[in-house]
Write a structure and sequence with these properties.
The protein has one domain. It is built from 5 helices and no strands. The chain has helices at about 10-15, 25-45, 60-75, 80-95, 100-110. The longest helix has 20 residues, at about 60-75. It is globular. The termini are far apart.
């Protein structure tokens, strides 16, 4: 097969070699509202019911939701590192909405806990 050469300023570069983008504060706030709504539904047993039974370990649902948000954001932002940064911001807003102090949030959202392409989980 041949090699496709793409000029840096060409339309083909913009189509095939997309640059990462960032999430706006409005988009992050929207995701926080969705997560808050899902969290409240989870707390009253309306989410992830299996055969009429609520989950015994709600943290599994939170982990699942967070993972799905991270996957979606990685695709939309075209960068896993940008998605991780945005997810940290979203968690800060989410925890603040639950009344958790900023200092505790910072301890909870230590970048070392997020698995990226260079680390093992």
């Amino acid at each position: 097969m041949g090699t496709i050469l793409v000029e840096t300023g060409s339309i083909w570069r913009r189509i095939f070699l997309l640059d990462p983008v960032t999430a706006s504060e409005e988009q992050k706030a929207g995701l926080v509202r969705v997560l808050q709504s899902r969290y409240h539904k989870l707390c009253i047993g309306e989410l992830y019911r299996i055969d009429g039974q609520a989950l015994r370990a709600p943290t599994e649902a939170i982990t699942l939701d967070t993972g799905m948000v991270l996957i979606g954001m990685s695709e939309c932002l075209r960068s896993s590192s940008e998605a991780e940064k945005a997810l940290r911001d979203i968690f800060m807003l989410f925890f603040a909405g639950l009344g958790i102090s900023r200092e505790i949030c910072k301890k909870l959202i230590d970048p070392s806990w997020i698995c990226d392409s260079s680390s093992r989980c």
